[in-house]
Amino acid sequence: MSSPTGLAPVNVPGTGESRPTSPTAGSLWRGGRGALLAALLVVLVAVGGVLLSGGQDPGRPLDPESTALTGSRGMAQLLRANGVRVVRVTSVTEAVTAAEGAQSAGGSTLLIGDTSFLDEEEVERLAAAPADRLVVGDQPYLTLLAPGVNPGPAVRTRSREPGCSLPAAVKAGSAYLGGTTFTTPFGGVGCYPANGSPSLISYADEGRTVTVVGDGQFMSNLRLAEDGNAALATNLAGARPTLVWLVAPETPSESGAAPQSVYDLIPPAVGWAVVQLGVVVVLLALWQGRRLGPVVTERLPVVVRAAETVEGRARLYRARRARDRAVSALRTGFVDRVIPRLGLPATATPDAVVGAIVERTGQPAAYVGSALYGQAPADEAGLIAVAAYLDMLERQVRES
Amino acid sequence: MALTGRAALLALLGTLAVLFAPRPALAVAAVALLLAALVAIDLALAAGVRPLRLHRAGDRLVRLGETATVELIVENPGPRRARGLLRDAWPPSAGANPRRFVLDVPPGERRRLVTTLTPSRRGDREAVTVTVRTLGPLGIAGRQGSHSVPWSVRVLPPFLSRKHLPAKLSRLRELEGRHPSMIRGQGTEFDSLREYVVGDDVRSIDWRATARRHDVVVRTWRPERDRRVLIVLDTGRTSAGRVGTAPIPLAGELPRNRNVPGGAGIAPGWPRLDWSMDAALLLAALASRAGDRVDFMAHDRAVRAWVSGAGRTDLLATLVNTMAPIEAELIEADSAGMVSAVLSRAKRRCLVVVLTDLNPASLEEGLLPVLPQLSSRHLVLLAAVSDPQVAAMEAGRGTAELVYDAAAAERHSAERRRITARLRRQGVEVVDAAPEQIAPALADAYLALKAAGRL
Lengths: 400, 455
Description:
Chain B: InterPro entries: DUF58 (IPR002881). Chain A: It comes from Streptosporangium saharense. Chain A: It holds the Pfam family DUF4350. The structure holds 2 protein chains of 2 kinds. By secondary structure, chain A is of the alpha/beta class. Among the domains of chain A are: about 75-245, Rossmann fold (3-Layer(aba) Sandwich), CATH 3.40.50; about 310-400, no CATH class. Chain A has helices at about 25-55, 75-80, 90-100, 120-130, 140-145, 165-170, 230-235, 260-265, 270-290, 310-320, 325-340, 350-360, 365-375, 380-400, and strands spanning about 20, 85-90, 110, 130-135, 150-160, 175-185, 190-195, 195-205, 210-215, 240-245, 305. In chain A, α12 packs across α13. Residues about 1-15 of chain A have low confidence and may be disordered. Chain B has 3 domains: about 1-155, Sandwich (Immunoglobulin-like), CATH 2.60.40; about 195-225, no CATH class; about 230-250 and about 265-450, Rossmann fold (3-Layer(aba) Sandwich), CATH 3.40.50. Chain B has helices at about 5-20, 25-45, 165-175, 205-215, 270-290, 315-325, 335-345, 360-375, 390-395, 400-425, 440-450; strands at about 1-5, 55-60, 60-65, 70-75, 80-90, 95, 100-105, 110-115, 125, 130-135, 140-150, 150-155, 190-195, 215-225, 230-235, 240-245, 270, 295-300, 305, 350-355, 380-385, 430-435. The interface between A and B is large, with 73 and 115 residues.
């Protein structure tokens, strides 16, 4: 035997000389500059787009400084053009101060669009302020701001006719109203009725005019130009030389000392240490993530056991309880193995086979006949018994 | 570029500095700057990877189951010491060890790194790439790059059946007779003349030579020689099935806890192809010693390999080299193509040994219709590896499930017997043996044919 390691080298490739395969800085730049340019372009377009589109107003409803569709900057401008001083306030204290300041100069109107940030005591102070009140919508503490006015069922907001004798409403004509309907207190005027209940109430309370509207959308930038909305708004809000406009503050927690959060107790150095720990994690990831060379793949041959087809057939037999086929296969195998030992030709008749086996083994002919050529067993116990009997016969034939 | 754990450790120490610094934001920036500076210094002072020169030397051939060594010589022509890590990447089934080396090559020197390969399957294993990471003096960062250093190791079939060769050779010598035979019979040819000694058969006296030599001369006979044996290896889908237990575990084994009926936990063995190769090698060794010419062909839908006219001394070497990269293809073998390839290559009568599977379906469709063309001109011997798993299933008794398994196995065996009988009726010799027995059984069949003078 010649050893394979002693053979002449076969014609396999590879001279054993090395050639660097890693990219150089130059090739990296040449390969990556296109992608880099594309990325730069995307960033430029994104930045330019944001800069050109300008800051988008988040849109606070009924804010005289908001230019969003729900804001009311248009109405504030309109009022100022009509010579009304518009004072925007964000707290009750400011509102009361402004109202008291305007008392000597012809009085003021207090526009209250949102009282959800106020507590009861603040609302009481607001109600006590020396100014007319214009309350928008079904607000909390409505009974304090507009005593005697009770909210009724909600209705759809749409263009409605005045239907009353209130001069402000009559002059304005139809307006975009609805929202909440109210019950009219004694001595009050109810306008813009929806389903019979007014959505605008005006009445005198302790010498001050209190107006309640079911919905403030007619004052918004979106609706101001429609119908008589602008006229109604200026009539209601511009009745006095000064309009004190109360809006919710940007950050509601303004009253008293804000509760100190846990984070305020941590020294600032800890935050920066966490940043530094982030750097550590990044460095660890870079250290562990850098692979020493490429992942090597290999095409492996298929792994399939040759016996799987036979096992599959066995499972089919099991699944269908195919006793007839199983027993016929066992019998065929038995006869094929036994016939040469009995000295019979392959074409031997069943009778000849049974006779020869009976002669050799001394087993009853009826048993041998039914085991070899009988009916398929009725149950699995019968199948097992036939298999065992055939085994026994085969052993006896072999040993006799 | 690559970082090490030291960089992360330095950053961690920097966290302490940030915690206790009066201006933490500034400290974060300072630590980052310091780290960046150290990394830059280390990178600048690390030895270059690109200028390294690498060469290989070592084994080109290895038998499956044995170990080859491949050397990698790293030469550092640069001015700086190359310290760091080196990975010599090989395919997983090459069984390379160690997977990475610690590298330390002073300037102008060279180092030898030895990789041992213990392949787990046949074929050509190509070295993939050599990746080097050289660290700077601080050990914080390093440069990394790859070199392609081509090398290929051919993994040859193990030829495990060579243990049977001495026994078969002695059978052959018996047959041949170191003492020339006196009996002239089938399968013998004229060997030489020698002087008559008392006891020789008087019928073997060559009267014409006796007349010339003035002495009684007898003829001697010997078994026929210089016959042709053509071994045809079927590499179609039926040769991919795994049978037996692998003497050397092959790559791509299934996990052992498979829930297979009747064969739970049985690992797949070798493909039929590998057992057939083993048998073919034993037959080739035996036939070349017996003085016959051996040709080899591997075929599925096309001729995969063809060896012809190899001399006695280098026949086995050529065969193992040719067989090494052959894998079973998952396609149906084209028997008509195989027969026409054999007929076009073998002009004279020869023994055609077809190593395939006795799969009734594929034989009936493929080989049987075209077999008469082959068997009319050549003697055909069909050798097939049977599956011991089927034999084990046949013996199953006791529960209904096992009996169903046994019935399925019996049916499979009956089909094999039927196809074997059909083949024998057509004058084809059939050898059907278990994986471990196929090589000696095929050798025995060859010897029997030779003794009977049927070659």
